[in-house]
Write a structure and sequence with these properties.
- By secondary structure, this protein is α/β, with parallel strands linked by helices.
- The chain folds into three domains: about 180 residues, Class I glutamine amidotransferase (GATase) domain (Rossmann fold, 3-Layer(aba) Sandwich); about 190 residues, HUPs (Rossmann fold), CATH 3.40.50.620; about 100 residues, GMP Synthetase, Chain A, domain 3 (2-Layer Sandwich).
- The protein is about 30% helix and about 25% strand.
- A nine-stranded mixed sheet has the order 2-1-3-4-9-8-7-5-6, with helices on both faces. Strands 12-11-10-13-14 form a five-stranded parallel sheet, with helices on both faces. Strands 15, 16, 17 and 18 form a four-stranded mixed sheet that branches.
- α1 links the parallel β1 and β2.
- The longest helix is centred in the middle third of the chain and has 21 residues.
- The protein is globular and about 80 Å long.
- The structure holds adenosine-5'-triphosphate, xanthosine-5'-monophosphate, glutamine and magnesium ion.
- It comes from Desulfococcus multivorans DSM 2059.
Length: about 500
C-alpha cells in the first residue's frame, strides 16, 4: 500500500484515485501521523500532497522528517516537494514568476519517473507561487519549465523525488505514467488491488474491530449502506441488526417500497423505525441549512441509540460513510481543508456518542462502492440507485420546513423521477431531483391569477460528487417534466432548471 500525506491540497483525493486506478491500495493520512504509525502500515511508498501553505510561513503543516530516513521511496508533489526540500536543507522562496495552469515541462532524463515517455517535453499543470531555489545535498534537477528551473528533483540513492507540477490532474497527460513509474518501478508495488481483495480485507478488519459484540447499521436503501451491510453481515452474521429510519423526509412511498426490496435483496435482520414526528418537530421553524443538518444528525443518533438499547451488547454503529462525505464535512485528517457542509453522518454527529463507529467504506468513492457492490452480488437496482442524502427532503425544501411543503415537493419529485426513468436517463445521471424554493411567483391558470411556489429541477452528471456538471437534458424532456408538475402538483405554478456546475455551486441547494 501507499500512504498519501495530506497537506491540504484540493487534489489529494485525485492522487488517491489515480493510485487506485493503477490497482494499488492507498490511504490518505494526516501529517500528524507518527513514524511508528507509518511503519505499522508498512507502506511501499509515501506521497506528500500539495497544499495551500507556503513552507516558510508560520504554522505551515509538517510531518516527521524521519520519513526520509525509512528507506521507503517518497514522492513530494508541489507543497510536498517544497517541504522535502526545505527540511532536508534546501531553500524555498516566493517565486518572482508564479505559474497557474498549463506549463511546458522538459524532463532531463528518460528513466526513473519519466521512463517510457518518448517525448522529453510535455504539457503539465502547475499551481504554485513558491519555488525551490537551492537543493539539499544529494539532490539533482531532473526537469524544468520556462519559469521554474527546479520543477522536478530526485535523490536517486535515497529514492526521494519531487514534482512541482501536479501529475494527478487530467491536464497533465503523462501524469498517470509518471505516477505508475513511481508505484511500480520505484516502490515495487504490483497492480493487484481489486474490489474482491478489498472486501476480504474489510471483512477481516471488521471482525477484528468488533469481536463478539453487536453492531447496528443505519440502513437507508442507498448503495453505500447496503454495501456496508453486506460486508458486516459477512463478517459477523446475525450479530448485525440494520435500522431503517423513516425521518419524515423521505420520497413518496419510499419506506413501503424499501420494506419489500431490502428484505428481498439483503437477507439480514432489518428493523423499520417510524420517527417522523421526532424529526419534523425538532425542525419546525428552522431555516438555516447547517442547523437543519446538525439537528437531523443528532436525532438520527438518538434514534440509533434508543434502538441499540433494545438489543443486548451493542457497542457499534455502522454507517455507509464515503470519502467525499468526510472531505466536505470536516477537515479530514486534521488537515487544513475548508468545511463546505456538514453531512449528517459526519459533521452532523453529536460530539459525545456512546456507540463506536464502524465505517468500512470511508476511504472509497461512490464508483468504487458500486464496483464493490457488484463484486458482492448486490442487486443491480440497488447498485445503481441515485444517491439520496440522509437529511432527505429537509435540504430540498429551502427555508422553513412544513409537512405541507414536504408533500408538495414529494409529489413533484415523484413526477420528475418517473419521467427521468421513462426517458432512460436515470442511470446516466448522478442525481436528478426537485427543490422547492421559498419564494412565490405569479401565474395564470384557467383564467385565474395564481400566486404559488416555484420548483427547481436539478439534474447533474458526476463521477464522485466532488465536482459535477448540470445535465444537458433534452428540451422536450424538460418540457414534459415542467408541464406535468405544474398540471399535477397543486401549489406549483412555475418550474425552472438549475444550470450551475459544482464548483462553484454544490449539488444540493442547502
Ligand atoms: N433513513 C435512514 N435510516 C437509517 N440510516 C440512514 C438513513 N439515511 C441515511 N442513513 C445513514 O447515513 C449514511 C450516509 O447516507 P448517504 O445517503 O451518504 O449513503 P447511502 O444512503 O447509504 O447511499 P447513497 O449515497 O447512495 O444515498 C448511510 O450510509 C446510512 O448509514
Ligand atoms: O448522506 C448524506 N448526508 C448529507 O448530509 C448530505 N449532504 C449532501 N449529500 C450528498 O452528497 C453529494 C454532494 O452534495 P453537495 O454537492 O450538495 O455537497 C450529493 O450526492 C448529495 O446528495 C449528503 N448525503
Ligand atoms: N499547490 C501547492 O501545493 C502550492 C504550494 C505553495 N503554496 C505554492 O504556492 O507554491
Ligand atoms: Mg442516501
Amino acid at each position: 500500500m501507499i500512504i498519501i500525506i495530506d497537506f491540504g491540497s484540493q487534489y489529494n483525493q485525485l492522487i488517491a484515485r489515480r493510485v487506485r486506478e493503477s490497482r494499488v491500495y492507498c490511504q490518505i493520512t494526516a501529517p500528524t501521523l507518527t513514524l511508528d504509525e507509518i511503519k505499522a502500515l508498512r507502506p511501499e511508498g509515501i506521497i506528500l500532497s500539495g497544499g495551500p501553505s507556503s513552507i516558510y510561513a508560520e504554522n505551515s503543516p509538517r510531518t516527521d522528517p524521519g520519513i526520509f530516513e525509512l528507506g521507503i521511496p517518497v514522492l513530494g508533489i508541489c507543497y510536498g516537494m517544497q517541504f522535502m526540500i526545505d527540511v532536508l536543507g534546501g531553500k524555498v522562496r516566493g517565486a518572482g514568476k508564479r505559474e497557474y495552469g498549463f506549463a511546458e515541462f522538459t524532463a532531463g532524463q528518460s528513466e526513473g519517473l519519466f521512463k517510457g515517455i518518448s517525448e522529453r517535453t510535455m504539457p503539465c499543470w502547475m499551481s504554485h507561487g513558491d519555488a525551490a531555489e537551492t537543493l539539499p545535498p544529494g539532490f539533482e534537477i531532473i526537469g524544468s519549465t520556462r519559469n521554474t528551473k527546479i520543477a522536478a528533483v530526485a535523490h536517486p540513492g535515497k529514492r526521494l523525488f519531487g514534482l512541482q507540477f501536479h501529475p494527478e490532474v487530467e491536464h497533465t497527460p503523462k501524469g498517470k505514467r509518471i505516477l505508475e513509474n513511481f508505484l511500480f518501478d520505484i516502490c515495487g508495488c504490483k497492480p493487484e488491488w481489486t474490489m474482491t481483495s478489498f472486501a476480504e480485507e474489510a471483512v477481516a478488519a471488521i471482525r477484528e474491530q468488533v469481536g463478539d459484540k453487536k453492531v447496528i447499521l443505519g440502513l437507508s436503501g442507498g448503495v453505500d449502506s447496503s454495501v456496508t451491510g453486506l460486508l458486516i453481515h459477512r463478517a459477523i452474521g446475525s450479530n448485525l441488526t440494520c435500522i431503517f429510519v423513516d425521518n419524515g423526509l423521505l420520497r413518496k412511498n419510499e419506506m413501503e417500497k424499501l420494506k419489500v426490496s431490502l428484505r428481498q435483496h439483503l437477507r439480514m435482520n432489518i428493523r423499520f423505525v417510524e420517527a417522523s414526528d421526532l424529526f419534523l418537530d425538532a425542525l419546525s421553524g428552522v431555516a438555516d441549512p447547517e442547523r437543519k443538518r446538525k439537528i437531523i444528525g443528532r436525532i438520527f443518533m438518538d434514534v440509533f441509540e434508543a434502538e441499540a438499547r433494545k438489543i443486548t451488547d451493542v457497542e457499534f454503529l455502522a454507517q455507509g460513510t464515503l470519502y467525499p462525505d468526510i472531505i466536505e464535512s470536516v477537515s479530514p485528517f486534521g488537515g487544513p481543508t475548508a468545511v463546505i457542509k456538514s453531512h449528517h453522518n459526519v459533521g452532523g454527529l453529536p460530539e459525545k456518542m456512546q456507540l463506536k463507529l464502524v465505517e468500512p467504506l470511508k476511504f472509497l468513492f461512490k464508483d468504487e462502492v458500486r464496483q464493490l457492490g457488484e463484486a458482492l452480488g448486490l442487486d443491480e437496482e440497488l447498485v445503481w440507485r441515485q444517491p439520496f442524502p440522509g437529511p432527505g427532503l429537509a435540504i430540498r425544501v429551502l427555508g422553513e420546513i412544513t409537512r405541507e411543503r414536504l408533500d408538495v415537493l414529494r409529489e413533484a419529485d415523484a413526477v420528475l423521477l418517473e419521467e427521468i426513468r421513462k426517458s432512460g436517463y436515470y442511470r446516466k445521471l448522478w442525481q436528478s431531483f426537485a427543490v422547492l424554493l421559498p419564494i412565490k411567483s405569479v401565474g395564470v391558470m384557467g383564467d385565474q391569477r395564481t400566486y404559488e411556489n416555484i420548483l427547481a429541477v436539478r439534474a447533474v452528471t458526476s463521477r464522485d460528487a466532488m465536482t459535477a456538471d448540470w445535465a444537458r437534458l433534452p428540451h422536450d424532456l424538460l418540457g414534459t417534466i415542467s408541464n406535468r408538475i405544474i398540471n399535477e402538483v397543486k401549489g406549483v405554478n412555475r418550474v425552472v432548471y438549475d444550470i450551475s456546475s459544482k464548483p462553484p455551486a454544490t449539488i444540493e441547494w442547502e
